[in-house]
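Task: encode each sequence below as structure tokens.

Item 1
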Amino acid sequence: MSDYPEKIVSDNELEELLSNPSKETIELFKRLEGDIIFLGIAGKIGPSLAHMAKRACNEAGVTKRIIGVSRFRDEAERALIESWGIETIRGDLLDRDFLESLPKVKNVFFLAGMKFGSEDNLSLTWAMNSYLPALVAENFRDSKIVAYSTGCVYPLVPVESGGSLETDKPEPVGEYAQSCLGRERMFEFGSKKYQTPVALIRLNYAVEPRYGVLVDIANKVKNDQPVDLTMGYFNVIWQGDANDMVLRSIEHAASPAWTINITGAETLLVRDVAVEFGKLFGKEVRFTGNEATTALLSNAEKAFSLFGENSVPVAKVLEWTARWMEDDKKLLGKPTHFEVRDGKY
């Protein structure tokens, strides 16, 4: 993306940016065989990811059945997804009969999972993040599967390390992160048992003006609340760039399962980002705590070597986020809890 708008003025313009496929993704869809299903399509990431797939099909001149599955608590969200030409199926993925009734398409994107409030219902957290992946790996054993994981499976690492690599040993902190490693292990087991091509996406953190680490920090600054510096460093990637990389990962799915970190190239400082938001909002910034020498950081060089550099710089996303919030536009109200260091989300 080279022609950036000064600010994003509407939900429609934001969706246009989030779901705009690269030329490489359009070419991928000319080659990709079979239909596509998105399990857990509702929420933060699924709609724009599936919309990008639909737009890529259209621009590639190919026809595919694109299906989104969710409990769809929000009827307006379901209607919006359907307006893009995406078929929807309502149901509970933990209901084995329902899961087994779904169309057995060639390409599966698994987005279901639990994070927010996971400490309040740990059994459901493990069911969604580990048990359900085992069911999906079994049910879609004849498909290609791209499954979202998280950089939280890595330990906190020294800031100067440049972030965890895919070859580093996972050492998840807390039950949420442990359950996410369980998700990976279940897909790895299915991949080995059935020779199912699998790609595991360790994402942290995707951002756009309605949610993400930048919104979390901006909210503190805008509302004159102190910004905690203890988790003083982080990585982010524009959600549209993450969507593009995730779709293209389907061609790298393999048995045994293939793993990739998806995030931005920069190690950002919470202090610097807060100060910049202070300038944009005209606010004095207050801080609490001091930067620890470790943080949850990922190294995405493997992704850059395969898919190229991010198209939207963090500085532009930061500016878009500030302008969006200045105009009091809708936020998703889902804090990332990126500042958590003990794994208790």
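Item 2
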Amino acid sequence: MNVRSTAPTAAERLLSAFEGAMGIPIPVHVRCWDGSEAGPDSDVTVVFRNRRAVQTVLWSPNELGLVRAYVSGDLEIEGDAFRLLTLPDLVDRLGTLSVRGSDRGTVLKSLATFVRLGGLGLRPTPPSVEVARRRGAKHSKARDASSVSHHYDVGNDFYRLFLGPTMVYSCGYWDQRSDDRDAIGTLEEAQNEKLDLVCRKLGLQSGMRLLDVGCGWGSLAIHAAEKYDVSVVGVTLSHEQAEWAQARVSEAGLSDLIEIRVQDYRDVVDGPFDAISSIGMSEHVGDSALPEYAQHLLDLLRPEGRLLNHAIASVRSLTGTGNSSGLIENYIFPDGEVLPLSRTLDAFERAGLEVRDVEALREHYALTPRAWVGRLRDSWDDAIRLAGAERARTWLLYLAASALGFEEKGRLTIHQVLAVRPSDDGSSGLPRTRALWLG
């Protein structure tokens, strides 16, 4: 007579151990390397493909262990990844054995279970795409160039998979007709609307000279030259971006109006410019270098010249949240700093710039990464072929987390700050009303 075993499966033991150590229920389905499953029915399943996935989660603090296990392919997320990232407390506490809500006996029992499951072995080697220890002073020119290269020099064709033909890597400007969160088909329209909004805020007119700091793949430079007949100097630290941008400029027949340089903005000395744009670049500058950034851009502007700074901002301090040791710092933007808006405004005003307008675009950025996630998923095989499985996984997780960061109030936002260099007599050169200077 066969008696069915009632011993807990690997998945049941693993789920129970995590819940005991963390002191909270885990409302996701779990599957283990032996095919066993546990947990409630859910629209997301966390798959531990091997014991190394458990080791990685346990060895690394905060969310970094979860990121490392996923990026390396030891842990899979089936179903709605957005749902997993929004579960309260789970991501913040999964990578560390928190004793909140658990008595000492429960925690010791969980540790014993992890040992039996092989989860407390030697520290696993981080994925190859994780940023190595950086050299040199933070925000030195050499270190900034290395950090920018890590993020942007991963293949133009890879970026094109999710950015689309506009190759704009910042939030779109979605009008009311595009209020659907999954309105992927209107991404190009939203990005072109954003480019034109920037040009109108800068008051571009034929014959003007524009400096585009952090010009990316040249999209704004081309739009400004084609639509507003201005000459543009675009600078980037990414060699791959510069090559792509230069080819686009040549193809568009705009080489007489646009110059793309591989150059640190601090080395630009051929002002004055009538206008300066900085779209998604000042996040790389850092808090300590922000006053130098503001002063140098002021020095490059002619009197009554306008500066538009488009940058992500933190709503509350990110210190202590785990971000500094997690996904963003170790995989995406090494040395990047997301600062409160007040820091930027203070640096601008201390340098002598007059801030004339601030527009928050949080809802617009919440829509944009969701569109990027959809496109990356639709091109997943190509993404792996172009960038490798680890990097493709990194970007998918990063874009999904970014969308949620902007959707949840009180975490991240983004602002366009319009400032001017006043003339000696105090004139800003701006019309008195926003409606007039927006055109």
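Check on item 2: The longest strand covers residues 301-314. Residues 29 and 40 are 6 Å apart (CA to CA).
End of task.
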